[in-house]
Design goal:
about 425 residues; mainly alpha; 3-stranded antiparallel sheet; 18 helices; 6 strands; globular; binds carboxymethyl coenzyme *A
């Protein structure tokens, strides 16, 4: 851990018992009360559904200031990384803590190339999924299957082994994602190529066919690179917490990532990017583009409908990733010379959200998923693949968080407590 200070104590009085709890402060002056001794000293636990106030670890990886709209990976601002780096460099940064030098980057890229193919037996798995299978289900199954094909990588003790594991996951998950798409449209799969970059390879595997000599559009490859960087990590979010929870029982990395993919799939998390597009389509088809009606529904407490791509647990100002994604969406559409009525509708909806007292008073702003789906759509990525794109981008973050948890000297199996509210003891007779 780089910087953690013990800056005093908090006093807690329960009945006639008073205890002192240490106050911890991180490198960006975030403060926490260390309650590890609470139950032992008082018999009490804390109650915090959704872990809104609960810090589960100390971490050197990603910093977010939700009030100011700041996101940094290992100290670097998200805008700088998105503007200047390759996704592969950011993956290295998250896992190793520093940006790679030329030699390290070359070696890392070579590993990625060497691991890009799927074991032939794994390739056959795709034949047995139904055509309508959601690609997130396929991706999760493929992730956990890696542990049976490459069990030797369970050892994380050497740095070299970590790089093998990281590059194998990054590379093979990208291949599996593209294969799952090809399977869903009944096309033959396209193998990865060593002469293409990470993003070019993915696009080629998605869009090349035996009858069309697909040329990767550099605008699309650049946009994909940026989007993957925006997705790459977001500290202790739902899926990262799941990855760590599974890993805390000493299950292997692949099993942990597979669980993370499932957590990401939900519409309140990464699945929101797919649901944003479906919501916009419905507004056009069923509500004649009536934004006011949709806003009223979202505000109605008797209606379970929520605006997808709006609101965030941590950001109480504009999501910095959404800012980048919104600009990128405009740029990509302009460069590709495409018009999309859904983008105009999204902008109208955003303006209505920002002007409405309900959303203002709850600090609800567009989040990353509001504009990323529209950008993927402009790039030709089908809607049911949007969350898969998020997952590919998030893999380095999940790995970095998992590795940090493994090295944490205070790490223990994740096991929350509860307040039991069921019947007290009763007998059957
Ligand atoms: N539409 C309407 N009302 C909302 C919305 C929304 N999208 N989001 C939050 N609210 C309201 C909510 O009803 C509550 O109102 P009240 O105080 O009157 O009860 C208040 O805002 C606080 O919401 P919450 O549910 O307590 O907030 P949370 O931190 O538990 O949930 C969230 C965060 C992201 C799950 C939620 O904002 C949401 O459901 N958003 C839509 C789904 C979405 O876009 N998810 C992607 C998140 S960003 C990508 C990622 O990290 O994966």
């Amino acid at each position: 851990m780089l910087n953690i200070k013990n800056t005093g104590t908090a006093t807690l009085t329960i009945g006639d018992k008073t205890i002192k709890l240490p106050i911890l402060e991180g490198s960006e002056h975030e403060k926490a009360i260390d309650i590890r001794a609470l139950r032992k000293e008082t018999g009490f636990i804390t109650y915090d559904p959704g872990f809104v106030n609960t810090g589960c670890c100390k971490s050197d990886i990603t910093y977010i200031d939700g009030e100011k709209g700041i996101l940094r990976y290992r100290g670097y601002g998200i805008n700088d990384l998105a503007d200047t780096c390759e996704f592969v460099e950011v993956a290295y940064l998250l896992v190793h803590g520093t940006l790679p030098n030329k030699k390290q980057q070359t070696e890392f890229s070579e590993h990625l190339n060497n691991h890009s193919m799927l074991h032939e037996d794994m390739r056959h798995f795709f034949n047995n999924f139904p055509d309508h299978a959601h690609p997130m289900a396929t991706l999760s199954a493929m992730a956990v299957s890696l542990s049976s094909f490459y069990p030797e990588l369970e050892d994380t003790s050497t740095q070299e082994n970590i790089d093998y594991k990281v590059t194998r996951l990054l590379s093979k998950m990208r291949t599996a994602a593209a294969f799952s798409y090809k399977k869903s449209i009944g096309h033959p799969i396209v193998q990865p190529r060593h002469d293409l970059t990470y993003c070019e390879n993915f696009l080629n595997m998605m869009f090349s066919t035996p009858v069309n000599n697909y040329q990767v559009d550099p605008i699309v490859a650049k946009a994909l690179n940026k989007l993957l960087i925006l997705h790459a990590d977001h500290e202790q979010n739902c899926s990262a917490s799941v990855v760590k929870m599974v890993g805390s029982s000493e299950a292997n990395l692949y099993a942990s990532i597979s669980a993370g993919i499932c957590a990401l799939w939900g519409p309140l998390h990464g699945g929101a990017n797919q649901h944003v597009i479906e919501m916009l389509e419905r507004i056009i088809e069923e509500d004649n583009g009536d934004v006011k009606k949709v806003i009223e529904r979202a505000k109605d407490k008797n209606d379970s409908f929520r605006l997808m791509g709006v609101g965030h647990r941590v950001y109480k100002s504009y999501d910095p990733r959404a800012k980048v994604a919104k600009q990128m969406c405009k740029d990509v559409l302009a460069k590709l010379g495409t018009n999309d009525p859904l983008v105009d509708l999204a902008q109208e909806l955003e303006e209505a959200v920002l002007a409405d007292e309900y959303f203002q008073s709850r600090s609800l702003y567009p989040n990353i998923d509001f504009y990323t789906g529209l950008t993927y759509r402009a790039m030709g990525i089908p809607t049911n693949m949007f969350t898969v794109m998020f997952a590919i981008g998030r893999i380095p973050g999940w790995i970095a968080q998992w590795l940090e948890m493994k090295e944490d000297p205070h790490g223990r199996i994740g096991r929350p407590r509860q307040i039991y509210t069921g019947p007290t003891q009763r007998s059957i007779s």
